[in-house]
Amino acid sequence: MKNSRREFLKLAAVSAMGIGAARLGFLGDAPAHAAGLPTVGNYEEGLKAKHWGMAVYSAKFTPERIAACRKACHDEHNVPDIAGPKEIKWFWGASYEESFPTEHGHYLSEEVEHRQFPLLCNQCETPMCVKVCPTQATFQRPDGIVMMDFHRCIGCRYCMAGCPFGARSFNFQDPRPFIKDFNPHFPTRMRGVVEKCNFCAERLAVGKLPKCVEAAEGALVFGDLSDEQSDIRKVLREHFAIRRKPDAGTSPSVYYIL
Amino acid sequence: MLEKALKGSPRYWGTLTALGMVMLLGLGFWLYQLTFGMKITGLNRDVSWGFYIAQFTYLVGVAASAVMLVLPYYFHHYKEFSKMIILGEFLAIAAVVMCLGFIVVDIGQPQRMLNVLLNPTPHSVLFWDMVVLNGYLFLNIIVGWTSLQYFKNDMTPPKWVKILAIVSVIWAFSIHTVTAFLYAGLPGRHYFLTAIMAARFLASAFCSGPAILLLLVLFLRRLTGFDPGQKAINRLAVIITYAMCVNIFFFLLEVFTSFYSNMPGHMAPLIYLFNGIDGHTMMVPFMWTAVVLGLGCLLFLIPTPVRQKTPALVTGLIMLVIASWIDKGLGLLIGGFTPNPFEEVTVYSPTIPEIMISLMIFSLGGIVLTVLWKIAIEVRVEVEGGNLSMVPPPAAE
Nearest CA to B136 among B162, B99, B84, B175? Predict the structure, then answer.
């Protein structure tokens, strides 16, 4: 009896060391990965605004540039590459009719009509998805960004029914096998939860611009809509810009310069 | 009274076993869904709700069947319904159990379901739907069970039961109204975005729910000889007929608003359902079947001499149930999500696993209903001394 207990304790000690070693190995790797994450120390370096918004120079967008932005965004956020109607999209391109379905022009400028428009979550001022979410898994930050708490989402998909822009995707299956280049700075999701663009809130927190804005080489202008002196307001003052489906009443924060 | 569910004929046990087997089969498919996720359904980015939520919506209507009996009984003292009322309340219990079941199988993370309670969110209609559905379930369990208990002991139910019954009448309206509000407030879905959505839900519930109840009661009469009384049957049939007329009228109001206004977004779902868009005509045969059956059932139900003949009544009711099921159990959800907000068609059709899981929930409802109705009938047999038809026994010689 005594012997067997001693054996057990020995085994337990060895196992604990094994687990400890494994943990140490993991911690050893961690700092390299965590370098870009905000800490209490560098929180103050984060970009701040009263209401974040985006202006899109749509004429500057070729299908290639949309693809580059899409890749930058999807790689950054571990967005799985799933084909078909169950796909997951944070940033994508679409035709004029799809982008502005309430503008039924018969005689459009051919160039505009055949242009591809970059689409993403509109980060609405009065977001329907936040209103309908029964668990507050979708919520709005004071700076206007509409966020998703993947851990609180029950997967009821009411937000998908509520969003007039089709900006939300549901993980119908485990997304992890469909992630090609894993980015350890951003969590992957599990199946059964909804996800969408978050205006790179995690990058703003450490003083960086959204990834698509970086990749767009000036074709996307990001800034504080409530600051009259901001770049985005300057751009919107100088160019005529429209928003997608204003009749839905959600007041998008993304403006398209045609 | 529960012990009455434990003894029964081979037919009773056979029914329960058969339903249990279907449930087990469906359970296998549900485990499959829990393992691999919702990818086994036909749902997609554009059609984010489908067959499960459509069945939930339809069954909320069935839960209403009780109110069409309870309301005349308690508000207008229409005593003819006294024998059917308990069956209506027990059908409501089974229907609400199925509603909750369909919600559970529809969510992607069912183990997080209680988040809705842990983070009560008054601006979400789904939160209120949870409140009213569970409330209605408890009201019907308490009122139904207690009044049966008092009936068994040959006593008048206490006053609080009557008060709760009156509350349940008003509450029944809330379950339809709140369920309609789930859809009616969504700016991107034109087929749902209508002020008469709640009214349409009520009209459709008040015809289809009592129709299913009446069909089940007539079936029960054949099986056991339990007779709710011809007067009660006739009266309920009249209520169903009026509700169906209102239901069709409300639908025509939608058609007028969409097509006279000529607004593309409002016309698109109706065009998709009844004509198809871009060659996608999957829903067209279903919707026209619903039109033919929905109008056809009125030929059997409106003329009183026809309606009062049982075979004609049964035919009319079956037509009505199929028509209203296509309207709510298929058309409402699919029409709401197709075309999508960009006026493009993403075809949705339920997959076999989806249908099997739905069968699991329907079997669960069938089991709950069989057990509850068995208890109700047995209690009546005991009280009435085995005379189910309630015809006064011949005077002793």
Answer: B175
Amino acid letter, B294: G
Q: Give the pairing type, strands A254-257 and A52-57.
A: parallel
- DSSP letter at A92 equals E
Does the CB of A92 have a partner CB in chain B at under 8 Å?
A: no
Residue B392: the pLDDT is 43
B-chain residue closest to A89, CA distance: B45
Q: What is the SS3 assignment for B356? A: helix
Measured between beta carbons, which residues in chain A are less than 8 angstroms from residue B182? 158
Point out the residue among A86, A155, A173 whose CB comes nearest to the CB of B109: A155
Residues 6+ apart with CB under 8 A from A36: A185, A206
DSSP string, B256-318: HHHHHHT-HHHHHHHHHHHT-BTTB-TTHHHHHHHHHHHHHHHHHHSSHHHHTSHHHHHHHHH
Q: Which string of DSSP letters, residue by residue, matches B162-215?
A: HHHHHHHHHHHHHHHHHHHHHHHT-TT-TTT--TTHHHHHHHHHHHHHHHHHHH
Q: Identify whether B339 is preceded by a cis peptide bond (ω within 30 of 0).
A: yes
Q: Locate the chain B residue with the closest alpha carbon to A250.
A: B187
**pLDDT (tens digit, 9 = 90+) per residue, B175-228?**
999 999 999 999 989 999 999 999 999 999 999 999 999 999 999 998 888 888
CA A22, CA A12: separation in Å to the nearest integer?
15
Which residues in chain B are closer than 8 Å to A152, comparing Cβ atoms?
112, 115, 119
Check CB contact of B178 with chain A, cutoff 8 Å: no
> Within an 8 Å CB–CB cutoff, is residue A169 touching chain B?
yes
**Looking at the partner chain, which of A154, A193, A248 has a beta carbon nearest the beta carbon of B188?**
A248
- Residue B11, CA distances (Å) to B22, B25, B34, B221, B224 in order: 17, 21, 34, 15, 11
> φ, ψ for residue A240 (rounded to 5)?
-80, 125
pLDDT at A4 over 90: no
* pTM given for the model: 0.89
A-B contacts (CB, under 8 Å): 144
Q: Do B344 and A98 touch (CB under 8 A)?
A: yes
3-state DSSP assignment of residue B341: coil
Mutate to test the interface with A, among B41, B44, B48, B49 (most CBs of A within 10 A): B48
Burial class of residue B82, CB neighbours in 10 A (0-12, 13-18, 19+): middle
State how far the Cα of B70 lies from the Cα of B79, in Å rounded to an integer: 10
Q: What burial class does residue A7 get, using C-beta atoms within 10 Å of its C-beta: 0-12 exposed, 13-18 middle, 19+ buried? A: exposed
- Structure tokens that stand for B293 in this block: 């059956």
| Rg value, chain A, Cα | 22
DSSP state of A17: H
